[in-house]
Amino acid sequence: MKVFHLVRQYWIFALAGFMLILLLFIPIRLAIASYQAPQPQAIVTLGGSPYREKFTAQFAQIHPSLDIWISSGNPPEEIQAIFKTAGTPSDRLHLDYRATDTVTNFTTLVSDFKQRQIQHLYLITSDFHMPRAKAIATIVLGSHGITFTPVPISSSYPRESMIRIFRDFGRSVVWIFTGRTGASLRASLSRPLFS
Question: Which residues are listed as membrane-spanning (predicted)?
Fold first, then answer.
């Protein structure tokens, strides 16, 4: 019985060590991406408020060569009207509605960025939301060698709680190892047990 306990402890420590080594590669990958792409190559805006899209349209005028991704924002007609009013060509705008929360804002888009060889992004969201977005982006984007420059938008909302930040940081780490964020679990828990 004691041998089984020692073997189990060994595997727990080995697994924890393996995970730690993998997570330590993220800062290295971020540093390499920053070196290879010192200037952002695209803009990503996390949906959730129309003023984020309006801010992004103005910000995009200052950076006319960068493509823009809006992750789960307002309906397409509204977003397209905002960017059309700002004079942004429609071919720069990429609307993505796969995300259901902040973690999936990143996990659904990371392969698109990799496919386009984007290594550096401007990350736009509200100031109260930015600490959580940065924690998630560091893990999800960093694990794929993509760095980011945060662009917070001022708001009157209080900063999000550390519990939410740690929860989504943990979900991001789980995603690295399993490819799952837990978002589908929330949907299945909200369904009735018997139909």
Answer: 12-32
